[in-house]
Design a protein that fits this description.
Layout (H helix, E strand, L loop, with lengths): L2 H38 L10
Length: 50
């Protein structure tokens, strides 16, 4: 295998790993925001702090 094949392979693995991390963090963040919406009563039209 040449250098470029190894480099492209490593780049692909890194990109997939970074994408997975971003996707997972975004998913968890979305769940947290939904939870905040429920507990904050924003869906009921109340104030953010109440």
């Amino acid at each position: 295998m040449g250098f470029f094949e190894i480099a492209y392979c490593a780049l692909g693995i890194t990109a997939a790993f970074v994408f997975f991390l971003f996707f997972r963090e975004g998913y968890l963040l979305g769940k947290d925001i939904k939870l905040l919406y429920k507990e904050g009563g924003i869906a009921n039209g109340k104030n953010w702090h109440n």
